[in-house]
Amino acid sequence: MCILCVQGKPQDHSGSPQLGRRDFLKASTATAAAAAGMGLFAARPAAAHDDDDAPQDSGRRGRRYIIRGGAVMTMDPSMPNKGEFPKADVLVEGKKIVAVGPNLHAGGAAEIDARGKIVMPGFIDTHHHQFETALRSFLADGVLINDGSGSVAGSTTYFEYVLLTFAPQYRPDDVYISELFGGLSQLDDGVTTVHDVSQIHHSPQHSDAAIEALFKTGRRAAFGYFESAGGVAGNQYPFDAPRIKKQWFSSSDQLVHMIMGGEVYLGNQSTDDSWRIGRELDLQIAAHILSPFGIRPIFDSLAAGTGGNGHTAIGRDNLFIHMTGMSDTAWQKVKDVGAQVSIAFPIEMNMRHGMPPIVRMQTMGMEPSLSSDVEVTMTADFFTQMRVAMNLQRLVVNQMTLDKPNGNQNLPDPRNWELPQTAATSNDTGFPYWPTPPGGVPAPLTTRDVLRYATINGAKHLRLDQKTGTLTPGKEADIIILDAQAINVAPLNNVPGAVVSLMDRTNVETVIVAGKVRKWKGRLLDVNLDNLRRQLENSRDHVFSQAQAHPLFPGQFDGRTGLFGNQ
């Protein structure tokens, strides 16, 4: 798909003499792979020039550059070849994608050499608590709520400790540096858009600090205006929302927009106020919906239209986070109205939120977006999110297949097995000796599935799919370039497979947001990380000191004091 061609400016897509003709795979191999449905497509390897400078003034009106010769995965199946190109170019002008296709002619545009690289949309995180960055990994052993067991996991809990002990100690400066550093960290990881679920609104100054940091980070974001953790006096949630929107979000042509938080477990009046104000301001309304906190009966009443005070009807403008442990009735309501669901697979599995509802969503014909949730327990790295999502779903459906009634009884006696002398074909019904999935069991997730969750689904769930989520001409250029020649990836045999199963943040070479290059050759631009790290550590030290906690090697939880001590 090429906008230049559509506009009457035909492009020659037949060849590119300046790039050479050698491919990773011979044509016969590529043809055979395509026929077999293996989805192999690869870029030609070539050494990048480390001393190359990033395109100057990228993202500014009229500035043009072209990303040359990469394996391009647009995530737009409406494009030719379902949006997947073994070798293609992406032309960017200003903040928008102008054209995508093989061998584009771009005149005097600056060039980014993407040979041996994968070019794709940036990842989109639909739920991340960035204000907690200074507390990273401190609750790596913990769960959500104290379970009374006295165990380390049952006592080192998120609700009592992070929200009620740490969060009240935050000053506006603490909010700012955690938001900024956490955002830059995810940008470095290739996450170009985030829904920042902010629960640190002790004062208008705290709110403004969080928003200022989101703008300063230079990536696309939704500011989630949620309640103030710890019940600190002076918080004006949700009634400060009109001021916030007017002051910060009066324009729709900016990288950061606003979402209204509306937790249903805070009580009917709080829920009603937040949802009412959100809808009066034409904001999307988000809420954590999960098994603990007695949310199921509350959510059932909202689904039935009998809960709240009149302003809490579940609708298309809702984004629900987790949705673990909810009833069939509630799920049907969510689907019927077109509400969205964000799943945080690693956190739900580790912190006792309940089973991530991916199989339920599949059986209902629904799809989630992905979210990282809290770095106090688990990394916000999106390669981790995709792998865990895929592994958890496949564990569940594979076990459902293995556990089908009498399934294994239908297999031949292993003592009589005779393995075929040639590879099995699609017509070979006698091999492998393996149980068939019973009716109603979803297919195992593929790498393309989780990549869709991590990109275009996230854009749809944040109402941004007209701007981002795919490399479609006319959308804004939120692009990541991934190194496929690195030792943990080479040789490149399967593009979506390599991204999901092999890569990590070290493979994220270049990150572009709205046409502006933010990371180049593995390094964030215009960022003094040493200075920011010192600020983050100073903030951590303040919060820990006020909470009487000890970093580095937290000891056994003391139930009498509610604090951690040294070992």
Give the SSE map.
Layout: H1 3-6, H2 27-35, E1 64-73, E2 84-93, E3 96-101, E4 110-113, E5 117-121, E6 123-128, H3 152-155, H4 158-166, H5 172-188, E7 191-198, H6 204-217, E8 220-225, H7 241-248, E9 256-261, H8 268-280, E10 284-289, H9 295-304, E11 318-322, H10 328-337, E12 340-343, H11 345-350, H12 358-363, E13 369-370, H13 382-402, H14 447-454, H15 456-461, E14 479-483, H16 495-501, E15 508-513, E16 516-520, E17 523-524, H17 529-547, E18 554-558, E19 563-566
Parallel strand pairs: 1-4, 1-5, 6-7, 7-8, 8-9, 9-10, 10-11, 11-12, 12-13
Antiparallel strand pairs: 1-2, 2-3, 5-14, 14-15, 15-16, 16-17, 18-19
Describe what this molecule looks like in 3D.
The protein is of the alpha/beta class and 567 residues long. The protein folds into 3 domains: 3-122 and 469-524, Urease, subunit C, domain 1 (Roll); 125-378, Alpha-Beta Barrel (TIM Barrel), CATH 3.20.20; 529-566, no CATH class. 30% of the residues lie in helices and 19% in strands. It contains 17 helices and 19 strands. The protein has helices spanning 3-6, 27-35, 152-155, 158-166, 172-188, 204-217, 241-248, 268-280, 295-304, 328-337, 345-350, 358-363, 382-402, 447-454, 456-461, 495-501, 529-547; strands spanning 64-73, 84-93, 96-101, 110-113, 117-121, 123-128, 191-198, 220-225, 256-261, 284-289, 318-322, 340-343, 369-370, 479-483, 508-513, 516-520, 523-524, 554-558, 563-566. Strands 1, 2, 3, 4, 5, 14, 15, 16 and 17 form a 9-stranded mixed sheet that branches. The chain has an 8-stranded parallel sheet with strand order 6-7-8-9-10-11-12-13. A two-stranded antiparallel sheet has the order 18-19. Helix 6 (204-217) links the parallel strand 7 and strand 8. Helix 5 packs across helix 17 and helix 9 packs across helix 10 (328-337). The longest helix is centred in the last third of the chain and has 21 residues, at 382-402.
